[in-house]
Write a structure and sequence with these properties.
This protein is of the alpha+beta class. The chain has two domains: about 1-35; about 50-190, Rieske Iron-sulfur Protein. It is about 20% helix and about 20% strand. Strands 1-9-8 form a three-stranded antiparallel beta sheet, with no helix packed on it. A three-stranded antiparallel beta sheet has the order 2-3-4, with no helix packed on it. The longest helix is centred in the N-terminal third of the chain and has 28 residues, at about 5-35. The radius of gyration is 28 Å and the shape is rod-shaped.
C-alpha cells in the first residue's frame, strides 16, 4: 500500500522550506549586521557641521559645536585683517609652522577666505575656552592689543588669526579644523574632501 513519492510535491516542499529558511535567516541577519553600524549618537559626534555665515555681522563671532567642542567663526573686518601682520613680532609662531591647521590654512590669515576665521575654541594650554575680545587697546589688555582672544584661566592671548602671543602659558596657536565652503555663505566643518 505504499505509494511512490511524488517528485513534484517533493520539489514544492523543498522550495517552500528553503524560502521559509531564507526569510528566517534574513530576520536574524539584519539586526545582527545593523548592530555593527555606529549608533546615531556616535555618528552625530563625528559628523560634519554646517554653519551659515550669511547673517554674521562684521567683527562678530559665531559659535557652533563640532565633536563636542566649540568652534568659532569670526567675520573679520578690514581693520582686523590689516592689524594681523603688525602682531608678527609679538607671536610665538607667526607663520604657523606647527601643524595645527590644514595645509590650505597655513597662511598669514590661517583661513581659506581671509574674511572668515574658523578655529576650535579651546586654549592650547589647559583646555579653557578663551574670551573673544575684538576691541583694540582696551584698558585691561593694554595699548598693543589689536583684537583676539584672552584666556581668563591663565592669561594666554591669541590674535585674530588664533596665533599665540609670546610670554603666555599657551605653547601653540589655536587649532583650525578641516573645513570647506559649500557655497559663498555656508561652511562645512569637519570635512574638506582633501582640499579647500
Amino acid at each position: 500500500m505504499d505509494q511512490p513519492a511524488d517528485p513534484k510535491r517533493r520539489r514544492t516542499l523543498i522550495a517552500a522550506t528553503s524560502a521559509l529558511g531564507a526569510v528566517g535567516v534574513g530576520f536574524v541577519a539584519v539586526p545582527f549586521i545593523a548592530s555593527m553600524n555606529p549608533s546615531a549618537k556616535a555618528r552625530a559626534a563625528g559628523a560634519p557641521v554646517q554653519a551659515d555665515v550669511s547673517k554674521l555681522e562684521d567683527g562678530a563671532l559665531l559659535r557652533v559645536k563640532y565633536r563636542g567642542q566649540p568652534v568659532w567663526i569670526v567675520n573679520r573686518t578690514d581693520k582686523m585683517l590689516a592689524a594681523l601682520p603688525t602682531n608678527d613680532p609679538k607671536l610665538v609662531d607667526p607663520n604657523s609652522t606647527v601643524p595645527h591647521q590644514p595645509e590650505y590654512c597655513q597662511n598669514p590669515t590661517r583661513s581659506i577666505k581671509p574674511k572668515y576665521f574658523v578655529a576650535i575654541g579651546i586654549c592650547t594650554h589647559l583646555g579653557c575656552s578663551p574670551t573673544y575680545r575684538p576691541e583694540f587697546a582696551p584698558d585691561d589688555l593694554g595699548p598693543d592689543w589689536k583684537g583676539g582672544w584672552h584666556c581668563p584661566c591663565h592669561g594666554s592671548k591669541f590674535d585674530l588669526a588664533g596665533r599665540v602671543l609670546k610670554n603666555v602659558p599657551a605653547p601653540t596657536n589655536l587649532w583650525v579644523p578641516k573645513y570647506q565652503y559649500i557655497n559663498d555663505t555656508t561652511i562645512l566643518i569637519g570635512e574638506d574632501k582633501g582640499a579647500a
